[in-house]
Amino acid sequence: MTGGFDQVVMVDWSARSAPSPARPTKDAIFVAVADGGRTSVTYHRTRADALACLTGLFDAALAGGRRVLAGFDFPFGYPRGFARAVTGTPDPFAVWDWLATRIADDDRNANNRFDVAEALNGLFPGVGPFWGCPAARATAALPMKGSLRHGHGMAERRVVEARMRTAQPVWKLFTTGSVGSQSLLGLPRLQNLRRRYGPALAVRPFEDRDAPIILAEIYPSLLAAEVKRRQGEDEILDAAQVVVMAQAFAGLDPTRLDAMLREGDREEGWILGLGHHDDLIATINR
User: Fold this and answer.
1) Nearest residue to 93 (alpha-carbon basis) of 269, 272, 273
2) Do 238 and 26 form a contact (C-beta atoms < 8 A)?
3) Inter-CA distances, 10 with 32, 42, 156, 162, Å
4) Residue 263's pLDDT is what?
5) Residue 37: which of 230, 286, 232 has the closest Cα?
6) 3-state secondary structure (DSSP) of residue 119
7) Element containing residue 249 per DSSP (H, E)
8) Which domains does the chain have, with CATH numbers?
9) CA 139 to chain centre
10) 2 pLDDT exceeds 50?
11) What are the pLDDT digits (tens) for 48-72?
12) DSSP single-letter state for residue 137
């Protein structure tokens, strides 16, 4: 099964606590699909709606004997040692499962991510590692500011984030670049996809096996300059980013893409395409 993909799906995720506005806006969910040389993008007001879109795409692909790559713009793992501290094993999927049993995230985006983050902080000495929340929600165990944390023992960044310094740490839960909240609300959704599709789905770089559906972590700012160059005058940046990412990965040589998907840390996760900027740009500008 190793080889190319019939469809490339790129997802710009959101940790909003209420439905996004009816009119497409930034900081919401956009799903870009590259298929057969054409790329489309859709806007989703809730995470539930986005997942319904994705399962529709995946179900149709499986029914048609097609292969899909789906990228999500939030971290798939945490700094080394976190999984073992929380679950007793370094397996990143144990964290996914732990979160899936504790995160409540309803069809209108109401969720308990700050409660879960505070509970996670309670498993570590000192204060932290998670931080950031509205002032009314802040406690000694979940501070508003990262500078108030101490003694928790976790690295601030994953190896991949140390190489991509513009990427925000996964511990940050609030305000601009709060990928920590996106992961807390995204990983349980991905775990549910793993349960739904079983061996038909694999997650890179944690799993080597081939499958019709492959999930990977992306970082749209990897191609920021190209996105800016291609963004339409009235086009929302989030939408432009996933369109460019979908086109870039869809255009890669299948063998090259397969090698990229197998790169990275098996415990912490990896950003697909990191270190291959020129290859990705070349596919778009061919």
Assistant:
1) 269
2) yes
3) 5, 11, 27, 23
4) 97
5) 286
6) helix
7) helix 237-250
8) 7-75+182-284 (3.30.420), 82-177 (no CATH)
9) 27
10) no
11) 999 999 999 999 999 999 999 999 9
12) G
